[in-house]
């Protein structure tokens, strides 16, 4: 971005200290030190925070684009909101409550008036006489993750953490995902790369925790933050499983589920074969998210203006994802499985993020290629946990092929089956819990990185088996 664009932006947003800082960096790069110093003075504590972090220069090019882009989007929303609020206020002042707002009251008018005065900007530091008013604010901890590696520095996540900060005591932690080719790698113990903090006086600071990136000796991450980060990643996995189950239930029944229990039924209605802690609390938010997407799709297809959807009603201070930057689940794309016949790998993915990569046994040319879905999900397909199909089986599109356990663990990584996908017991049981019935499966060659991505035993996905997951009415004869 040229500094002429930033100058225009600063004129419109003279209180945006980050914009002043970025403009100063532009002038400094052009050798105009006097102008740069003036901009840095206007940036105040932003200059101090980011200069201390010693982030590499090339990060700011993408960072400023992301920040300005997000700020412009925010400004557009504010203009649109102010237009409608102004119209409402005019109607109120004229004594004509809007026809589509029954019960419109003076209290509502006062709230709208207050909203008109709000700028949603990062607050300036408050004085000592105001600190008592902010002392009661409960601190919050918000997490997100971003790809770091292969030229990625997590600019979008950093910009989101910065622009999302408001008049509250908050710690926004950006966890770092490694990359492999075009994939981002999800792990249960991802390192903290950045923390953006707002304190009780409204001061915003940022700290890099990557010694190579900041060229510094970063402080230690507190045990509390590490523990919360682990809990956050576990929650996102449960949310991805539940969200995918909602999508699968809708496709199968042409209706939305009313509860988690409705999806966690005995065989064959076991969309969810296993449940995880927190699913009941997450369900209303995730259901509203998918209903909102469906409504938006209908509005777009009919050419009508999109109105508010049930997604809006799921927002709130005590939302299920208040610990996630943006208030939405991080892994939003439905789960899928990808099987690589060359590398003998099975990956569970969400969009371009790999959640797990397991080692598997295959059948060489006898393992079919193509697209399938998980149909039958069965516990103890042979009637016992140590049979040839192990303790779990997931059938591929009503064929004679399945993903299942094995009583021949030495065959993992080899082509010794008659076409089925063999997995170790601990792997297939975790996959069975994560991937709902209806999960798409793609089998091909050279489609995954040659690595294994599985948590250590104590960090495995925690789940509770739904009763009656066996199929007493059928003996399976998959091509093991």
From TrEMBL:
All copies of domain L,D-TPase catalytic, residue ranges: 335-444
Look up the record and name the pathway of this protein: Cell wall biogenesis; peptidoglycan biosynthesis
Entry keyword Transport: no
Low complexity bias located where? Answer: 297-310
Protein's name in the database: Lipoprotein-anchoring transpeptidase ErfK/SrfK
UniProt keyword list: Cell shape, Cell wall biogenesis/degradation, Glycosyltransferase, Hydrolase, Lipoprotein, Membrane, Peptidoglycan synthesis, Transferase, Transmembrane, Transmembrane helix
- Of which family is this protein a member? Belongs to the YkuD family.
Transmembrane stretches in the record are 83-99
Q: Which organism is it from?
A: Paenibacillus xylanexedens
Q: Where are the annotated segments for Disordered? A: 290-316
Q: What is annotated as the active site? A: 404 (proton donor/acceptor), 420 (nucleophile)
PROSITE patterns, per this entry?
Answer: LD_TPASE
Q: Which residues form a coiled coil?
A: none
Domain of life the protein comes from: Bacteria
